[in-house]
Amino acid sequence: MSTVKEAVEVEVPVHTAYNQWTLFEEFPQFMEGVEEITQIDDRHNHWKTKIGGVRREFDTEIVDQLPDERITWRTISGDVQQKGTVRFQRVDDTHTRVELVMDVEPSGSRRRPRT
Q1: In angstroms, how far is CA 37 from the centroid of its own chain?
Q2: Does the pLDDT of residue 96 top 80, yes or no?
Q3: Is 17 within 8 Å of 86 (Cβ atoms)?
Q4: Residue 24: closest CA among 13, 34, 11
Q5: Cross-strand pairs, 90
Q6: Which residues are registered as beta bridge partners of 38?
Q7: Chain-centre distance of CA 91, in angstroms?
Q8: Tens of pLDDT along 101-113?
Q9: What angle do CA 100, 106, 109 make, to 5 degrees?
């Protein structure tokens, strides 16, 4: 499993940054490799991605959500195994630090024992 860690400071209040991350169906507009997200309900989304020429589909479940602070999710089906958390930290009234930590393992990437 690979771990991705990224952090960025954005020039918006924490509430604005958090709200943008809850608009899952808009991710394809700004997130490279995401082709489509369908929000099924408040906790479940269906993703279609194409990264490095490889298309994948999977479903995620939000397992923890604290407004203006964090969103934690995991996959529940599909060709990707992942879990992650995005955190929002107020820097000042007009700046927010957004930190993403995600563990990902695409199907077929697991090492198989030699026979």
Answers
A1: 11
A2: yes
A3: no
A4: 34
A5: 96
A6: 46
A7: 22
A8: 999 886 654 444 4
A9: 125
Tokens found for residue 27: 């991710």
Q: Which residues pair with 45 in a beta bridge?
A: 39, 60
DSSP the chain: -EEEEEEEEESS-HHHHHHHHT-GGGGGGTSTTEEEEEE-SSSEEEEEEEETTEEEEEEEEEEEEETTTEEEEEEEEESEEEEEEEEEEEEETTEEEEEEEEEEEETT-SPPPP-
Which residues does 25 contact at the CB level (< 8 Å), separation at least 6?
Answer: 37, 38, 39
Backbone torsions φ then ψ of 15, nearest 5 degrees: -60, -40
The pTM assigned to this predicted structure is: 0.84
